[in-house]
Amino acid sequence: MKKLLAGKLHILSLGCSKNWIDSEVMGGLARVSGMTIVERPQDADVVLVNTCGFIGPAKEESLEAILALAEIKKQRGGDLKLVVAGCLAQRYGKELSLEIPEADLWVGTGEVGRIAEHLRSLQAGGTQRKAIVSKPDFLMTSRHERLLPSGAATAYLKISDGCSNRCAYCAIPSIRGRARSRRPDDILREAQTLVARGIREIILIGQDTTAYGRDLKNRPTLSGLLSDLSAVSGLRWLRLLYTHPAHLTADVLETIASRKKICRYIDLPVQHIDDAILDAMRRRVSSKTIREIIRQARGLMPDLALRTSLIVGFPGETQKRFERLLDFVGETRFDHLGVFTYSREEGTPAADLPSRISEREKERRRDAIMNEQADISYAVNQTLIGSVQEVLIEGKSDHPDCAWVGRCRRQSPDVDGVTHVKNGPAAIGDFVRCKITGCDHYDLFGKMIPFKQS
Fold this sequence. Notes:
The protein is an alpha/beta fold. The protein is 34% helix and 21% strand. The chain is built from twelve helices and 19 strands. The strands form four sheets. The chain has a six-stranded parallel sheet, sandwiched between helices. It has a six-stranded parallel sheet with strand order 7-10-11-12-13-14. The protein is globular, with a radius of gyration of 23 Å. It starts with 7 loop residues before the first strand and ends in a 5-residue tail after the last strand. The relative contact order is 0.08.
């Protein structure tokens, strides 16, 4: 029988929703093994920071967090143990373990499922200042208990991990490994467990959710998985993120359109629209196909909320090619949009491409697109005034004229705007019916009205 872990653990999770699930899994494993989870690093015996190492700004944020926690450790007189996990540890752990001796242990993405063993060894004094970076092949299952936030009504569900697309700018395949799909029955089991724990909205994620099932023996489909999940009793909303335009098929669109529980919301990261840039990025999709997918999706679902992400400043993006992208944004009128400036990442094919663009010009191009999108978002939001939206209440509003804040089906957490609700009795986790009365560039404002009696 393994010895129980002692002490208190604080977890700081950085980066994307996929990383957040890894943090929940590590927290669950630590708690099951005997540790108490605390909210403040000052109250902990062990602090674990789950880092992001995807692009330059994310790496900088992770390093700043590590050094800030190292300062807390110094103030404590050294009795606090500091563990660095996640993507930055996977990518640079062996080098950084020498440069940042304040961290007691570095564990890569392949070690998520063994975190309790590593913490046990750390408490016994066996792994100080060591980097454990193995093959990034961990894939969670429904047997892993997740440490969900107290009172949460929304949870992410990771249907796959890793990526085999190998886009020219992306380091994820080396950090997360090849694409690996979970079995449909295991995903369904986790969804049922989440609903039993009070979750009302499940958001499906993966590095590329539309590649789901290709690596499994029986080749299960994403559309079949969506259909099965939409039948889970007690689930109110189902949302799909990270759909690659090269892989998003008609049957998936038709399933989203035909299932009431599935939010008519598609996250379609196109990255660019110029064919020369798409080829250089190794996106394996043409501008014509991207436009056809958008046309097809909106034809099936006129009320669709469409989100995308773009990269500006990729090597070879001439002014003309950038203007082509800017024109595309204006023509397509996405409901939600995010822009990244290209980050040159060592070890990726794009790192050696010529025709580099200055950081100042990248920022100018990003600002130009975001200014265009702000006007589009405001115009789209204005068309929603007078409509009735179902809203999931998530907390108290910080707006002086509103009591609650939440999201409607058109809004995904963390990346989109929110809906402020002016009046009415409600609690966190409630679904309320709201008439939209106003908007700003990104948020909606509404007043609560009674649900129709059936």
